[in-house]
Amino acid sequence: MKLLITGGAGFIGSAVVRLAVDRGHEVVNVDALTYAACLDNVASVSDSPLYAFEQVDIRNRDALDAVFSKHKPDAVMHLAAESHVDRSIDGPGDFVETNITGTFNMLEAARKYWIEADKPDTFRFHHISTDEVFGSLPNDPAVKFTEDTPYDPRSPYSASKASSDHLVRAWHETYGLPVVLTNCSNNYGPFHFPEKLVPVIILNALAGKELPIYGDGANIRDWLYVEDHADALLLVVEKGVLGRSYNIGGENERTNLELVRTLCAILDKKRPKASGSYTDQITFVTDRPGHDARYAIDPTRIREELGWQPSVTVEEGLEKTVEWYLSNEAWWSALQQRHGVGERLGVKA
Ligand SMILES: NC(=O)c1ccc[n+]([C@@H]2O[C@H](COP(=O)([O-])OP(=O)(O)OC[C@H]3O[C@@H](n4cnc5c(N)ncnc54)[C@H](O)[C@@H]3O)[C@@H](O)[C@H]2O)c1
Is residue 59 a contact partner of residue 98, using CB atoms and an 8 Å limit? Predict the structure, then answer.
């Protein structure tokens, strides 16, 4: 299968690119290389004859048309987005332009290409989205996000992703474009950009800095190992039912404080401090404005219809992640120099 993957130099996109090439798919990685991108993320496959890279901004419709006619993909996996909630609070404009207008451009470029190819029903436009479009859940284990949960986005980031989901569904209903959608929970794992919670905690711990926890740390997230997510995404693009959406979760709900304590315990074991525990560095900081209390995915549909389930618990996945950061200092220390990384963002609401 020839896959056109947008955002393939980012965190999740690069995991999909690596796995797809390893499984013998041809991949065209389309990425503008924003502050969040790093081509080292795909270095393990970039010399493969199955891999091609196009530095293209999805806000540029003409450039997208050229990519489609040059590469003639069998399917699109659309991951390119502005992804950091804190940055969306400080500068929502980029999120509207890339996540909404960029997705509109992707849909129109894909539709033109699909029509010119006589509308093959084997073509797929797979939109990768987030569980944050569903809003915030009460702290009740019986209540989880299903594919039928009404949308209730509450940050500029999640509102932009909700808008793009609606556009994708509309292009299916109105124009018949063969789409599938996925909404996933919080990812973590290797190559996670060092502004997100898990890498921030690991790297601050190693640097002897404070480990900042927003509010009281009681916010609950459902943690999904990025390589499990990539596996689920390839399954959906190959076997997902047309027009259908699938929730993808790790079945690993933890409070932020529990997650940070687990990371500290792993680090205490793998890189012990001269004295004390990394938990001594935990500090509670001003909460994010509009911080959603709980996200939790009910993954019944993808499990029962497509036979997918996560391969690791959050403790196993975090252990692999810590090992990866301990072995890849050159990768993360270069990214720590980028604009805004290491600063507290998103507090001026
Ligand atoms: N990280 C998570 O936990 C999570 C959870 C749910 C959903 N998602 C979704 O998964 C997708 C990937 O997330 P991620 O964490 O890998 O993001 P990321 O920020 O690590 O990577 C995004 C990539 O998109 C590229 N990009 C940004 N704007 C672009 C533009 N205008 N044109 C072309 N390329 C552009 C960047 O250069 C970068 O390589 C996003 O759509 C995000 O909304 C992420």
Answer: yes
Identify whether 148 is a catalytic site residue: no
Provide the sign of the torsion angle of the four alpha carbons 316, 268, 221, 128, taken in this order. Answer: negative
Task: Point out the ligand 1 atom lying closest to the alpha carbon of residue 193.
Answer: 20
Q: Which amino acid is at 68?
A: F
Q: What pLDDT, on the 0 to 100 scale, is given for residue 99?
A: 98
d(C-alpha 226, C-alpha 231), whole Å? 9
pTM of the model: 0.97
CA dist., res. 204 & res. 198, Å (int) = 10
Residues near 160 by beta carbon (within 8 Å), at least 6 away in sequence: 81, 82, 88, 92, 95, 96, 99, 100
What pLDDT was estimated at residue 349? Answer: 54
The pLDDT assigned to 124 comes to: 98
The 10s digit of each residue's pLDDT in 49-79 is 999 999 999 999 999 999 999 999 999 999 9
| Identity of residue 170 | A
Q: What are the beta bridge partners of residue 4?
A: 28, 76
The residues pairing with 254 across neighbouring beta strands, listed in sequence order, are 221
Contacts of 214 (CB under 8 A, 6+ apart): 256, 285, 286, 287, 288, 291
131 in catalytic set: yes
Domains and CATH numbers, the chain: 2-192+223-252+293-311 (3.40.50.720)
DSSP state of 10: S
Instruction: Find all residues with CB under 8 Å of 213, minimum gap 6, and list them.
Output: 256, 257, 260, 282, 283, 284, 285
Instruction: Report which secondary-structure segment, H or E, holds 213.
Output: strand 211-214
Atom of ligand 1 nearest to the CA of 13: 16
Annotated catalytic residue: which of 131, 251, 253, 319? 131
Q: For position 215, what pLDDT does the model report?
A: 93
Write out residues in the chain with pLDDT < 70, as ranges. Answer: 348-349
